[in-house]
C-alpha cells in the first residue's frame, strides 16, 4: 500500500517534517486551522493531521488534487469494491492490437514499457467508465485514480520527474496496481482546492498559513505533465520528445515576477501565523535552480506583516552534481501577524 510520501516529488518536505513540526509547536500555540497554500504531495498536511482540526489543502495541479481527494476526502467508500478492482487490474492480459490506447500510443516505450502503458491506459479508462456510469462514489474514484498515479510513477522510466524519459535503455516495466492507504480523517474538517494560491488566499481565513512555493524556474506543471494528462484524461495533442501538452498552470513563482507574486500573497493572507520554508540554492551554478526570490526579499516582505523569526537546519540535497553542498540550508520563517 502507498502512503502519501511514497512518491518522487521535487521539493517535498516530508524529510523535514519533524523539525518543521516541532518548531511550529513551539512558535504557533493554540491553533486549530491550517492552510497548506502550495501543498505539493500533501505530505505537510498529512504530517500535521494530529495537530489541527481544520485543513485547507491547495495546489493548482490536477494530479495533486486527485491525490488529496483519495487520501484526505472525508467520505465513505467500499473497501471490498476497491480490492476487487485491484485484483481485476492485476490480472489483465491485454494484447497491443486490440487494446492500444492514449497512454500506449503516446508514452509506450518512452515513459513506460509498451505493455505497462497498455495496462495504465486501460485501467484509467475503466476507472472513468465506472465513475461516469455511477458505479463508483467520488471517494472510490479518487482512491483508484491516486492509486494508479502512484503505481505508474513507481515504475516510470524517468529520473523522478517527467521533463524527459531515459533514452537508449531497455525499459524493464513491471507495473503492479497497488492501492493508496487513505488517511483517517474522522472528526477533521478538510477542504481541498485546485486554485491559484494568490487567488485562493484572498478568500481564506485560518490560524496558520503554510507557504512552500517553488523558488526556481522549474515549472511543476511541466515536470509532472504525464501525471497531469493521465488525471485530466482529455487526450490533448502532445509535442516534442518529452510528449508535453500545451502549457498550462505556469507559475508566477518560477518567473522574474516571483517577488511581486510573493508580496501580493503575503499581503492578502488572513492568519495568526505565516510559516514560510526557504532554501538557499541561490548560489547554485545551474541557472534553472537559481532562486527567483532572495532571502532578503522574503524577510522584508514578511517583516511588513509582523514580528518574524528565522530558524535554520543544515540540509543536504541532490542537485545533479552541479552545486557545492556544503552550505545548503533549509530555512523556516515564522511571522506572528500584527506583532511588530
Ligand atoms: C515546493 S512544492 C510544495 C511541496 C510540498 N510542501 C510538499 O511537501 O510536497 C510547490 C508547489 O506549488 C505548486 N504551485 C506553484 N505555483 C502555484 C500557484 N500559483 N498556485 C497554486 N499552486 C502552485 C506546485 O504545483 C508545487 O506542487
Number of helices: 13
Distance between the ends: 47 Å
Low-confidence stretches: none
Number of strands: 7
CATH topology of the largest domain: Rossmann fold
Output the strand order for the largest sheet: 3-2-1-4-5-7-6
Secondary structure: helix percent:
25-40%
Structural domain tally: 2
CATH level 4 superfamily of the largest domain? Vaccinia Virus protein VP39
Range of strand content: 5-15%
Question: Radius of gyration in whole Å, from Cα?
Answer: 21 Å
Q: What CATH architecture of the largest domain do you see?
A: 3-Layer(aba) Sandwich
The ligands found in this model are: S-adenosylmethionine
Q: In one word, what is the shape?
A: globular
In terms of topology, how is this protein built?
Elements: H1 17-27, E1 33-36, H2 43-47, E2 54-58, H3 62-72, H4 79-90, H5 96-99, H6 102-107, H7 114-132, H8 138-155, E3 189-193, H9 197-201, E4 205-211, H10 220-223, H11 225-232, H12 258-268, E5 270-279, H13 295-303, E6 306-314, E7 329-337
Parallel strand pairs: 1-2, 1-4, 2-3, 4-5
Antiparallel strand pairs: 5-7, 6-7
This protein binds S-adenosylmethionine (SAM).
Amino acid at each position: 500500500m502507498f502512503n502519501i510520501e511514497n512518491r518522487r516529488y521535487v521539493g517535498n518536505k516530508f524529510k523535514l517534517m519533524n523539525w518543521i513540526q516541532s518548531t511550529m509547536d513551539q512558535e504557533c500555540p493554540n491553533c486549530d486551522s491550517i492552510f497548506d497554500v502550495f501543498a505539493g504531495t500533501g505530505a505537510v498536511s498529512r504530517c500535521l493531521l494530529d495537530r489541527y482540526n481544520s485543513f485547507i489543502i491547495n495546489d493548482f495541479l490536477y494530479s495533486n488534487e486527485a491525490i488529496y481527494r483519495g487520501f484526505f476526502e472525508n467520505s465513505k467508500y467500499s473497501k471490498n469494491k476497491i480490492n476487487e478492482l485491484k485484483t481485476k487490474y492485476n490480472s489483465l492480459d491485454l494484447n497491443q492490437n486490440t487494446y492500444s490506447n492514449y497512454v500506449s500510443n503516446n508514452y509506450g516505450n518512452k515513459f513506460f514499457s509498451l505493455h505497462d502503458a497498455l495496462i495504465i491506459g486501460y485501467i484509467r479508462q475503466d476507472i472513468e467508465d465506472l465513475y461516469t456510469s455511477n458505479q463508483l462514489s467520488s471517494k472510490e474514484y479518487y482512491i483508484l485514480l491516486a492509486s494508479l498515479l502512484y503505481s505508474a510513477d513507481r515504475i516510470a522510466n524517468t529520473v523522478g520527474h517527467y521533463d524527459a524519459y531515459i533514452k537508449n535503455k531497455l525499459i524493464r516495466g513491471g507495473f503492479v496496481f497497488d492501492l493508496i492507504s487513505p488517511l483517517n480523517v474522522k472528526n477533521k474538517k478538510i477542504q481541498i482546492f485546485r486554485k491559484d494560491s494568490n487567488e485562493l488566499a484572498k478568500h481564506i481565513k485560518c490560524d496558520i498559513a503554510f507557504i512552500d512555493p517553488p523558488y526556481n524556474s522549474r515549472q511543476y506543471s511541466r515536470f509532472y505533465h504525464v501525471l497531469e494528462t493521465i488525471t485530466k484524461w482529455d487526450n490533448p495533442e502532445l509535442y516534442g520528445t518529452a510528449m508535453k501538452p500545451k502549457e498550462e498552470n505556469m507559475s508566477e513563482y518560477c518567473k522574474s515576477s516571483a517577488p511581486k507574486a510573493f508580496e501580493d500573497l503575503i499581503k492578502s493572507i488572513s492568519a495568526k501565523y505565516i510559516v514560510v520554508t526557504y532554501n538557499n540554492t541561490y548560489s547554485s551554478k545551474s541557472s534553472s535552480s537559481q532562486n527567483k526570490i532572495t532571502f532578503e526579499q522574503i524577510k522584508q516582505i514578511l517583516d511588513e506583516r509582523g514580528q518574524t523569526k528565522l530558524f535554520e537546519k543544515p540540509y543536504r540535497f541532490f542537485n545533479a552534481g552541479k552545486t557545492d553542498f556544503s552550505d545548503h540550508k533549509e530555512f523556516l520563517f515564522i511571522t506572528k501577524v500584527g506583532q511588530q
